[in-house]
Amino acid sequence: MATPIQAAKRYYRRGRSKVLWVPTIQNKQAPTRAELDAGTALEGETGAMQGWQTTSGTVPTPALGSRFTPVVGGEITAADSSLTFWASRDADDVRTLLVREADGFIVWMDEGDVPTQTMDVFPVTVTSQAKIRELDQAAQIMCQFAITSEPAENVAIPAAAGGGG
Q1: What does the buried/exposed string (b/e) look like for 63-84 if buried means 16 or more CB atoms within 10 Å of the residue's CB?
Q2: Mean of the pLDDT values across residues 127-135?
Q3: Is 71 in a helix, a strand, or coil?
Q4: In DSSP terms, which residues pair with 78 in a beta bridge?
């Protein structure tokens, strides 16, 4: 009998996941704790998110000698991605941080900022700050992002300075 897959320790994302804006990371495959700590934690003002995943295409590889067409892995793309934040009536909100054309990194720590757990590092450019205007909703700002190179996925979260978490 085949061994069953490891049972997931299921969790609720709100209150646990962390999302950071980090202006500079030298190596997206191994961000340092100092680089992460120099970033800004966004989850406290994030009201919604969309995208933030990669997908892989396939390429058909037909051969004259067979009616079956096998495929191989092809291009890797990232979905259009955005973060929606609460707007402040004094305009002192995300608009001062995530300005159009700013380059940096969005870092997702889905299970929290826990050393040795994993994070995803998305190199991005901020493309817009759209004001969401709804009659019966609190004011929001949706920041849209261009993902500028392949994200580093499942990268180990580094320990805090001094080895703590």
Answers
A1: eeeeeeeeeeeeeeebeebbbb
A2: 94
A3: strand
A4: 54
Measure the CA–CA gap between 165 and 157, rounded to whole angstroms. Answer: 10
Nearest CA among 77, 90, 93 for reference residue 143? 93
* Residues linked to residue 108 through DSSP beta bridges, in sequence order: 19, 120
d(CA 55, CA 81): 13
Q: Indicate whether 163 pLDDT > 60.
A: no
Q: Identity (one letter) of the amino acid at 144?
A: Q
Q: Which helix (H) or strand (E) holds 120?
A: strand 118-132
> Taking the model in full, what pTM does it have?
0.90
* Token reading at 48: 């919604």
CA atoms within 13 A on the CB side of 33: 12
Integer Cα distance of 160 and 165 in angstroms: 5
> Which residues have CB under 8 Å from 42's CB, separation 6+?
19, 20, 21, 83, 85, 94
User: Is residue 165 within 8 Å of 18, Cβ to Cβ?
Assistant: no
Paired tokens of 15: 């209150």
Mean pLDDT value of segment 23-38: 98
What's the pLDDT band for 21 if we cut at 50, 70, 90?
very high
7-11, 62-66, 102-106: which has the minimum mean pLDDT? Answer: 7-11
